[in-house]
Specification:
InterPro entries: Alkaline_phosphatase_core_sf, Sulfatase, Sulfatase_CS, Sulfatase_N. With 488 residues, the protein is of the alpha/beta class. It has 13 helices and 14 strands. It has a single domain, classed as Alkaline Phosphatase, subunit A (3-Layer(aba) Sandwich), CATH 3.40.720.
Length: 488
Amino acid sequence: MRLKKSLLFFGLVVCFLGCKNKPTPNTEATKMNILWIVADDLGTELGCYGNTDVHTPNIDQLANEGTLYEKHYTVTAVCSPSRSALMTGLYPVSFNAQQHRTHSSAKKVLPQGVYPITHYFRQAGYFTSNGKYGQPDKPGKQDYNFKADSIFDGTDWGQRKPGQPFFAQIQIPSPHRPFVPDTIRPIDPEKVALPAFYPDHPVSRKDWALYLENVQVVDRMVGHILERLEKEGLAENTLVFFFGDQGHPHVRAKQFLYDGGVHTPLIVRAPKATDKGSRHKHILSNIDIPATTLAAAGIKIPEYFDGLDFFNPEQKRAYVYSMRDRRDETVDRIRSVRNQRYKYIRNFYPNRPYTQYNTYKKTSYPTLTLMQVLHKKGQLSGAQAQFMDTIRPNEELYDLDTDPNELTNLAESAAYKTIKNTLSNQLDLWLDDNDTGTYPEAAQQIEFWKTNAKKAYTRKMKRFGLPEDISDEDFLLWWETYLDERLQ
């Protein structure tokens, strides 16, 4: 179920940057509250992460009061397996939770002896809740790929007994598409800095600007949550984690293992921290969040957990692993491993295009339609053209220090052969010990999601008022009008 510690935590050191922010261990007399604020589809496009196009004062202030983790990566770039990992402390591929999504009929109970992390908090006397931002009486997003009963005690920490400590999650549904425009502080599409991979076009600029506006909306939501902690006198006894479940919902990001999909913000504010405003530069995985959360509450981390306690000064990761499998009706299998500098990606289906048909992307990503039109015209080059090709390389290798946008694949370069082989061998070790999910997936499950996607496409195109067989060129024209209306 997991790699031996000698492999997973190879490179263990005694000094861990940011450890001064470790909260005071819990005691029975003064148990600390713990809050997860989870944004859906949020990349690192925040002021505190260096983006100058967005205004995120509340999140920036949270970073100033806590620790910002610069290199935090998710185990996968889509919600259900990522959230399954967060709730179990296990890689989703180790217990058949890797597909997105899993129909209720195919969901399995957790392996014997494995429990959602809320089980351990309940045993320690905590009230556990999961609520939707702005609607505390409604449960927040769960979308787990396993069966479990009564994971949470309620939907809001206000439902707990007087004086009872809480482990609460508040789910922010943004910036998941469709984007919520920021009418208070709109962003000029002409002035945004586009991701290096995207073609410079009014459609890509407007779509990116809308995403950034929605990030600003998220910032205000975070501000309201933190303000509530202050008003209720809870801020000084609540450990706050703020993070995204995966990266931004754009081309070559969400669902993929490039940094746009797996690099997400993580900010932790600890009560009475002595190192406020610190920045942690070492690699972390979101599978480390549940382990760290339990340890911070003074709860023993289960032996089966795949994550580590990143507050512990004696633990430091050498590698971070990420994975992609079926996403809705689109069957794929990609794995990656990265160290502090390099990322290695292995494509198990190199004869399939990156842009395999996917209803969600077809009906949600204007820039994808734009790139399809430009590709037909021969107006894409380099990594853009590679991504639109009908095949892909077996292996990819990127130097993230010199090429943070992952545009130059070094896998075939003789100068990087040793680095590639080292990471490839490390991935093999991880696969042998962790990647134990069922392959191939049952044919009836794949067929179910294909049928479901066709129905969803029909419904959505009807809502758009468009024919199902619309050409890419006409769809692009429709997207231009849609974006203009959203930005008004």
